[in-house]
Structures are given as C-alpha cells and as structure tokens.
Amino acid sequence: MHVLVVHNRYASAQPSGENKVVDQEVALLRGAGHRVGVFERRSDDIAARSLPAKAALPFLVPWNPKVRAELAARLRAERPDVVHVHNVFPLLSPAVLAACADAGVPVVATLHNYTQICPPGTLQRDGRPCTECVGATPLPAVRHGCYRGSRLATVPLAVGLSVNRRRWWTGVERFFCISAAQRDVLVRAGLPAGRLAVKHNFVPDPDARRTGAGEHLLYLGRLAETKGVRLLMAAWDGIAAGGGAGVPLVIAGTGPLEAEVTAWAAGRDDVRYVGLYDAEECRRAVARSVAVLAPSTWLEAFGLVVVEAMAAGVPVVAAGHGAFVELVEDGTTGLLHRPGDAASLASCVRRITADPVLGREMGEAARRRYERGFSPAVGLERLVEGYRTAIAGRSGGGDGPPPAGNEHTGPRRGHPRGRDGGRR
What's the CATH number for 2-198? Predict the structure, then answer.
C-alpha cells in the first residue's frame, strides 16, 4: 500500500505525543513493507521567517492556498492509495483536504484531540470542563481567549473551525478516534458516527522493563495546568506532611509551569525535577518506576505515557475520567483517583507505594493488557484496516451533512486501487 502522511510537527522545545505517534506509525508501516511518504511542515521553522511572513501567518491558519497547490501537485505525481492526515495547525491548514479532493485521493484523519469542536482542542477553560462552543459557533472561545489566553490568537482557530467544519465532514472517508471516550464526545457533538472508528495508539515494545519493585514515582509529560501538575504538587505536599511515600517523585518534562515546578522542587530530598528527557532516558525512567502518574484535569483523548508504562510492566495512577477509564483497569493494572481531587490522588499513591506485592501484580497485568491491545502488531492491523475501508469507500459517508459550496463531492477520477483492489 502507498500512504502519504500529512502532519504539522509541533515545536521540538516541548514534548509532543502527536509527533511521537506519527513517527512510530510511519516506521511501523515501512517496516511492514508499505511505501510511506511524508508531507509536513515544522512549527520550529516559524522563528526563522521574516516579520511580514510571521504577521501573515494567522490569516493562513484557516486556509493556506499555497499548501493546497503544493500537496495536490505531489499527489498527482505520486498517486498514493490513501492520505493520512494528523495535525494541520498552524502551517498546513484544512486546505490539505481540498488538495486530496483535487487529486482524487481518499483521506483518513487521526483526531488527536477535540479541535473539531473546540478551537484550542481541550474542552476546558480556566481549569474546568467547558463545552460552550460544542454544537454552536466558537464565539465563546474568542470571548474568553481560550487559546494561550489571547482573544487575538484564538480568532484564526475559531474562524478555521467555523468555515471548515463541513469540509472535514465531507472530505474525510475515515476518522480515527484514539479512544472510545473521545469518540463518544465527538458523536454527541454531532460528528458523523459512521465515519468515526476507534484506533488506539500503539507503543513499540520497549527494550527496558521493570524487574523489581521500582525506585521512584514518575510524572512524565508536559508541565501544564491541564496535565494536573499543580494537582500533583498539592497531593505530594500532603503525602510529605504525612510522612512521605518512601520513594522520591521524579518529574520529567517542560512547559509553561516549569519555573513553578523548579522552585517547588528546589532543596527537597523527596522530589527531583530532571527537565526534558530524551527517548532513551524516558524508557529507562519508566522501567525504574514504582508507578507512573497521570493526574490530568482535562479529558485526555488518549494517554501515551499510560500505555508506555504498561508496556514496561509498570502500573499507573491516573485521573478517573476521559480515556484513562478505558486504558486503566482500576485495581488491576493501576489505580484511578477522583479527577481534580488532590486527597484522592495522594491516597492512591500511598496505596501503591505501601504494597510492593500489589504493585508487582498490577505491573504484570498491565503488561498483559499492553500485549492484547496496544502492541505494534495490533496497531498495524488497525491502521491497514482503516486505510482499506477508506479506499473501498465503505465509510458510512451518508452520516454527514449534505455537501455545499464548491467542495469536492463527485466520484474520484482515476484513483488507483490498492494491490488487493481495495477489498478485504
């Protein structure tokens, strides 16, 4: 199968689960013998642009005609069987969908968050769940400055959501939701249910697995309010006041709360802030953990670090909402705490550090769960199945609204089938 992957890479200064997923899927497909090309832009490149080019960027977020022309030309030259779209913000835009329609190539899109129904993609405002824009115009997001706390920065996202909603619905044959919890939210918001398939992200089998009880608790991820970092600090202070957990807390990552975390950890024996780990350091840190902590306050659409922990035979303590509820079997592969509740998080941490036998049993169960549902073999099967469904046109295309305007709605002209004729 010939696949072209379309992705706007997030800035490398901060960890990105989406970048990791894209790279891992490309490697997986190539390793299985599929031909995979990549059409990408990098947010890192924005810094090198001229001042006028930077000033023009917000106007290109909803629609980038240059990208449409460039991608359409590449599609006509290479004729891939399917295009797999990931992130298009800020340098690609939904114009990539028009390019695929121009060239008559079917599209699969992975929904890594909630940008189809919420301009910043978080369904959260001021640390609390928010659905004001769901099923309505995104004006509340502009009014509240939901993206980076700025009304001006939110406008391009809100405009893009408004003018391209119908194009997403009619231009994508198959949407990959990365959890059933995410799919449920999107269906309730009005996205076409017949096109939304659940495809969990896979994780490569790590070269490091836990062999003992572990030597630390680990938070690994972006240092942001939505990831529950402040909640974790409050819970840990409560644990410390009660005598401690018996093992240190290691925090690895970077983000907007880095200065706050650095100051909080300074001078403490029970906390180590280690900054941004590379991939190998992450694998070793996970494998040495008593448990990995995922206390997110927003409704995570997936939770890559949770599955990475399971792959290493390490249990997880996670917030009991969003995708974590389907990833973590409470009491079997890890523990779920009440979302946003520091005392509940602290209680779960105390329980898992106080009982090494329980921790070992949970770690073993977590590894079995990984092998059943999140291994590369499972990931490859679900990827290829989604591609074949898109190529064959069996996507439930009647679930969306009727096409309008000048969007491509006719048959795909001259599109070559896959090697098996597009049939399973």
Answer: 3.40.50.2000
Question: pLDDT by residue (tens digit) across 75-120?
Answer: 999 999 999 999 999 999 999 999 999 999 999 999 999 999 999 9
pLDDT for the residue 15 = 67
pLDDT number for residue 135: 81
Domain 216-373 has CATH 3.40.50.280: no
Chain segment 185-237, per-residue pLDDT in tens: 899 888 889 999 999 999 999 988 999 999 999 999 999 988 999 999 999 99
CA 27 to chain centre: 18
Which of 275, 279, 280, 314 is CA-nearest to residue 294?
314
pLDDT at 253: 94
Is 50 exceeded by the pLDDT of residue 366?
Answer: yes
Give all strands of the β-sheet with 107-111 in edge-to-edge order. Answer: 35-42, 2-9, 82-85, 107-111, 174-177, 196-198
Q: Which long-range contacts (CB under 8 A, 24 or more apart) does 136-140 make?
A: 137/162, 138/162
Tell me if 51 sits within 8 A of 16, measured CB to CB.
no
Beta-carbon contacts of 331 under 8 Å, excluding residues fewer than 6 positions away, are none
Of 413, 185, 133, 172, residue with least CA distance to 299: 185
N residues, the chain:
424
Terminal Cα-to-Cα distance of the chain (whole angstroms): 13
Domain edges within the chain: 2-198, 216-373
How far does Cα 410 stand from its chain's mean position? 32
206-210, 241-245, 362-366: least confident range:
206-210
The secondary element (H helix, E strand) that includes residue 2 is strand 2-9
Q: One fold for both 2-198 and 216-373?
A: yes
CB neighbour list of residue 18: distance below 8 Å, 6 or more residues apart: 7, 10, 86, 87, 112
Q: Which amino acid is at 118?
A: C
Residue pair 201/21 in contact (Cβ under 8 Å)? The answer is: yes
**Distance of alpha carbon 205 from alpha carbon 28, whole angstroms:** 12
One-character DSSP codes across 86-120? ---TTTT-THHHHHHHHHT--EEEEE-SSTTTSTT
Which residue's structure tokens are 């978080």?
122
